[in-house]
């Protein structure tokens, strides 16, 4: 789950919990909202703590076949 999806779940859960006063038969929207907010917060934590601090390396080679591995901070992340 990415940062955008996590924020969306937090916002949707907050809307269901705090903004709506609708009765739905058999479903408590407040509980559904809290569950969505908790899932969004957990997704945000996992995204930033586990997937965020990865090292980036670049392998470069010249015409003689010599390869050099460099750790770089400016390499864009591959799309997931």
Descriptive account of the structure:
By secondary structure, this protein is an alpha+beta fold. The chain has one domain. Helices cover 50% and strands 12% of the residues. It contains two helices and two strands, in the order ααββ. A two-stranded antiparallel ribbon has the order 1-2. A hairpin with a 5-residue loop joins strand 1 (57-61) and strand 2 (67-71). Helix 1 runs antiparallel to helix 2. The longest helix has 23 residues, at 29-51. It starts with a helix and ends in a 9-residue tail after the last strand.
Q: How is this structure best summarized?
A:
With 80 residues, this protein is an alpha+beta fold.
List the main descriptive attributes of the protein structure presented here.
about 80 residues, about 50% helix, about 10% strand
Beta strands, count: 2
Q: How many independent structural domains?
A: 1
Q: Would you identify the regions where 5 or more consecutive residues have pLDDT less than 50?
A: none
Mean pLDDT: 81
Globally, the shape reads rod-shaped
Radius of gyration: 21 Å
Give the proportion of residues in helices. 40-55%
Number of helices: 2
């Amino acid at each position: 789950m990415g940062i955008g999806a996590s924020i969306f779940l937090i916002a949707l859960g907050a809307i269901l919990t705090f903004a709506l006063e609708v009765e739905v038969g058999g479903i408590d929207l407040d509980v559904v909202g809290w569950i969505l907010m908790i899932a969004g917060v957990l997704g945000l934590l996992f995204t930033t703590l586990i997937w965020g601090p990865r090292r980036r390396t670049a392998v470069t080679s010249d015409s003689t076949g010599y390869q050099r591995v460099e750790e770089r901070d400016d390499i864009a992340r591959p799309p997931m």
